[in-house]
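A.,

Following up on our hallway conversation. Structure tokens first:
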């Protein structure tokens, strides 16, 4: 994980924004991303979790406890592709995708 440490703030920001997004599918994908992140960087995931209100903490903790690497729902795969295409089309300088076990 050390080679990625300079990007962890970006990953955390993406999870934080996605978990509070207006679209339910985006929130769902952010919960999955948080679950994967909690396996890869457990101490940082705990610190990230503390930033949220109690209801969101419960949802993220539940996602982390039931997470199985590589078990992204079919709709989630489509959402990830859509996010990547949107990011590339917008010409963003940095597109981050945190996927564990795919």
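Then the amino acids I'd put at each of the 102 positions:
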């Amino acid at each position: 994980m050390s080679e990625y440490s300079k990007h962890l703030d970006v990953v955390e920001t993406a999870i934080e924004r996605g978990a509070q997004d207006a679209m339910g599918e985006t929130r769902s994908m952010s919960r999955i991303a948080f679950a994967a992140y909690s396996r890869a960087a457990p101490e940082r995931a705990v610190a990230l979790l503390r930033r949220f209100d109690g209801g969101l903490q419960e949802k993220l903790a539940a996602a982390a406890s039931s997470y199985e690497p590589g078990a992204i729902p079919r709709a989630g795969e489509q959402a990830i592709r859509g996010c990547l295409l949107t990011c590339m089309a917008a010409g963003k300088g940095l597109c981050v995708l945190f996927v564990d076990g795919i």
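Confidence is low (pLDDT under 50) at residues 84-102. Curious whether your intuition agrees with the design.

B.
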